[in-house]
Amino acid sequence: MNTINKIMVVIDGTPQSMTASFYSIYLSKLLDAQLYAIYVINEKALNELLKAHIFIEEEKIDYEKEMLEDAEKYLNQVQSNAEAKGIYVKKIIKKGIVHEEVIKTIVEENIDIVVIGELRKMISVREAAYDEMERIMRESKCVVLIVKNKEKVEMLYKNM
Amino acid sequence: MSLLDIVNEKAITTNLQALEKESVIEELIDLLVNAGKVKDRTQAIQDVIEREKKGSTGLEKGIAVPHAKTSAVDTLSMAIGISKDGVDFNAVDGEYSYIFFMLLAPPGSSGPHVAALAEIARLVQPPLIREKLKNASSTQEVINIIAQYENGG
To answer: Which domains does chain B show, CATH number per domain?
Structure first.
């Protein structure tokens, strides 16, 4: 019996996360696993900017709306790429602290593998404390797969 | 996100000449023009000033973060300017602003724009960093201060 039933890819709009999505589609097909794609709107950062007076309320609302549109755009792109290979994707959009929402969703949906894009090179100690992908990698209770090598991954996807 | 990824050394000055709000904005945008980051100077100035009209980005303790979404740039771009005399930027605490971070983001890049602004907000929290930046005398010194902060120093 297949013990890897659910794979979830974390999308944040970076090219790295989109490469991760191609590999998650490949893996989902290979393992016959259900694929989830999650995008978390970084509401914490928006609130911090409002508190610091860098944002005004109108701007926060505007950016939140744009981030929601971005989330939909990127998840639709993942969905379209997956459907092209006969894979169904369950799309999830959440708001909050990115790594916390991802980790909560891993538990809620009983995810077996979470897939993230390649981490930044030479990340500093301070950056690591704020880097959401780094924190997902460190704090997730399920298997975390970090996808590297864009060209090879895209070739795998293309040849599926 | 590392702020050093979005700032070009040509877009840093420790000797801002401007003494008024609008001219500071123009001088910072000119740094980005010279760094090859801004393709439409007039549009960039207009978008930053429009944003400032809605509420000043002069924060407390000598910091200002003028920013805008603008089609005048293709990528998220930052300029840093230090004014020795200070400028009345209508800051929230009524004090002069000495350290300016200008951030321009193309439409559709709200995630990285927010991440960069949040990183600036964290950078200027420690009083020692603010003091070092205010007293910096060269571009390289500004870069070193940010690098040291980002490396946990």
So the answer is: 3-150 (3.40.930.10)
